Amino acid sequence: MLVEKHAKRVLLLMSPATYRAGAFVQAAQQLGLDTVVGLDLPQTLAELWHVPLGLDFSNIAVSVQTIVEYAQEKAFAAILSVDDSATELAAYANLALGLASNSPQASEAARDKLLMRQLMSAGGAPCPIFRSFWLHEDPDSIASQVSYPCVLKPRRLSGSRGVIRADNAAEFKVAFARLKRLLLSEGASEHETSILVEDFIPGFEVALEGLLTDGQLKVLTLFDKPDPLDGPFFEETIYVTPSRLATETQQTIADCVSTAAAALGLRTGPIHAELRVNEQGPWMLEIAGRSIGGLCSTILEFGSGMCLEELILRHAIGEEVATLEREEQAAGVMMIPIPEAGILKGVHGVEAAMAVPLITGVEITAQLNNQLTPLPEGASYLGFIFARGATSADVEAAIRQSHQCLRFEIRRSIPILNAGRNK
């Protein structure tokens, strides 16, 4: 069904727990857009919380119909998912309303790691050798079929949840059991759920933030990840930009991401890609049809102070963006890792962490007296540290110094004071 586009109305789809809501809503307001929030909530709770549009993201058909009916009265110029939770729903809704978007098939491929691997491999994007196995299969049998070191991955969880490295058969069986428990706790069926097992790729990681227009990639920035990500879990911490890699290497990375996006059928909007780089070149790990997660986008500015969310919104409603060039100043962010499971009882040293030169913000997002769960089961951070400076090296050093000032009191059986740590 086609409806007339309304140049000033956008629908932002998001989960209740997303970090991204404030940045997108604020950017929309600054652009003078009439913003509707579609939240993954039962309609009764949505009404209680005064959310205009309560949707069940797991029921795409019903949610699309709800959106279409809403749009009959007030048409949308664009429908965006601000995080992973609704990228497929956004694609189906945009298709139903005749709005520009990636296809539902491309959006599904960017969410399903097995489908992603299959399409990347067929499309010529370098990626690890992979196989899939069902949760109900015998782990002893699987352990004898795979190469080591390998990495076990859930097909749809994000943020490195459930991603575990195994160096031998014994470690594989432990990792398989742990991942199986996690997926079953999330409601998966062991006879209908498969996992991905792929060769571990040595090297260092980078993350590319980009924008697609008619299938053409514009690199917005390339982040270095200076902390090693070698397992057994893959907890991301520091991102710094601009990258310190050689220009030729950066171009090779961009070419690799372009190939991967084309293989999946991604053609428009933001993408966030994760890669490994070694002496053989770049290897695709993942590509998502959305922008960078958490509060990390806070450090990105383009042109004369345009934030990433404003850039994405302008692009989505069809406005021409005058410049996509990032500011020259170096910037970085640390996603503060959770060192151990327990109840957060105290946070100390924030003022000292803020006083470190080049630090522009320290935001603790974990709530006191709440349970903390580290990776691979956890899905959040303790908070974020932000910095800006003349060089990426200066920014990285400032973030590390600031992190060392922080102490997190986490109670297990008895109160324990945990010093800030680096990997």
Structural class: alpha+beta
Write out the strand line-up for the largest beta sheet, numbering strands in chain order: 3-2-1-4
| Main sheet specs | 4 strands, parallel
> What is the CATH first-level class name of the domain at 9-102?
Alpha Beta
Instruction: Tell me the number of strands.
Output: 22
Percent in strands: 25-35%
Q: What is the terminal-to-terminal distance?
A: 52 Å
Which range best describes the helical content: under 10%, 10-25%, 25-40%, 40-55%, 55-70% or over 70%? 25-40%
- Low-confidence segments, ≥5 residues, pLDDT <50? 1-7, 415-423
Whole-angstrom Rg: 21 Å
Mean pLDDT over the residues? 92
What CATH architecture label of the domain at 9-102 applies? 3-Layer(aba) Sandwich
- Anisotropy-based shape: globular
CATH topology of the domain at 9-102: Rossmann fold
Counting DSSP H or I runs of 4 or more residues, the number of helices is 12
